[in-house]
Amino acid sequence: MPRPTLALGLFALVVLGACHATQGASGTQIVQPGAPGQPTRVISEEKATDLSRVQFTPADVRFMQGMIGHHSQALDMTALLPERTERDDMRMLARRIEVSQADEIQMMRRWLEARGQDVPGPHAHHAPGAPLMPGMLSAEEMAQLAAARGAAFDRLFLASMIKHHEGALTMVKELYATAGAGQESEMYAFASDVDADQRMEIDRMRAMWQQMQKDKEQ
Asked: What is the pTM (predicted TM-score) of this model?
């Protein structure tokens, strides 16, 4: 099951469970999950009905458009890896990133197309003057990564990708901090999924980087 669909299913189960669990003299109460890191809260049936009709916002569109470019650069970074690393664990990491982010790019493109919004081209993030989303590498940083080889490449790749992933977390945080944004059901599920996945991969990459540093010092 695709991750956004799973997240939506879980959301529905939480809401349904809360509805049945809190039936009583005071009436029905429904639990609305908070943004990543935020607590849930009880809302009224009327508010829940309103939420089911929530539409996307300009901030949602900007998030999707920007995240397409953000993910596309991650694929540029992983494309450098096969000829520059000697480690199988690095190849496995790159493959996971490639599969997940390529799939999410297609999902974001479909989301924008379905809503009649502009869809960035596959190389839009390379265009002169294209904005760098949080955490994205500059042209000079990409050149440094491309010039590295072996263990030096591995350490620089991990440090760069950690920075890149942390930028995605910033984008999610900024989305939820914008009034009315991130509330459409599909948008909420996707942004929450990005937050969870990027945090998990950051933890994995930090552990790999620390082990490489220890190996270097021995």
From this structure: 0.76
